[in-house]
From TrEMBL:
Pfam family, one: Pyridox_ox_2
Gene3D superfamilies cross-referenced by the UniProt entry: Electron Transport, Fmn-binding Protein, Chain A
Organism: Arthrobacter subterraneus
Protein name per its UniProtKB record: Nitroimidazol reductase NimA, pyridoxamine 5'-phosphate oxidase superfamily
Entry-linked InterPro entries: Pyridox_Oxase-rel, Split_barrel_FMN-bd
Length: 153
């Protein structure tokens, strides 16, 4: 972990994975021919990868088109005044081998939306990065037109 100005802490890979285990919802970004798109997904870390369930649609089409993806997840501890954000970039692929599919059914994946989510997708990261940072007090937010004054004076 390396500390930067403003209290921003660059997280190690293991710290990133620890953060990802704290929450179960992230945002999946896919790049398609007509441009990028972002979807909320329920995920779980699994042996250095991320697994989520999906049905037919844009996410599945992106995976089948061999698109590179990114997943971002965030968390906050309001009592400590600390937040974090982790981004994984990598390749997503359908879980196809029967043994892997059966094993995936035992993972704690609970989609929020109803509907058929019969496809398991595994993201194998090529990079992982994260930051932990103090939550700024509202009076320190810069507001256009204030000439550098604090929002609350």
């Amino acid at each position: 972990m390396e500390e930067n100005p403003g209290g921003i802490e660059v997280l190690s890979d293991s710290d990133c994975w620890a953060c990802l285990r704290q929450v179960s919802v992230g945002r999946l970004a896919v790049a398609l021919e007509d441009g990028p798109d972002i979807f909320p997904v329920n995920y779980t870390p699994d042996h250095g990868t991320i697994v989520f369930r999906t049905g037919s649609g844009t996410k599945l089409a992106a995976v089948e088109a061999d698109a590179r993806v990114a997943l971002e997840a965030d968390g906050v501890d309001p009592e400590a005044g600390i937040a974090w954000s982790v981004v994984i970039r990598g390749q997503a692929e359908l879980v196809k081998r029967p043994d892997d599919v059966l094993e995936s059914f035992s993972l704690p994946l609970f989609p929020w939306q109803e509907g058929q989510k019969d496809q398991f997708v595994r993201i194998t990261p090529t990079t992982i990065s994260g930051r932990r940072f103090p939550i700024a007090e509202p009076k320190t937010w810069w507001t256009p037109g204030t000439s550098g004054r604090t929002a609350v004076e």
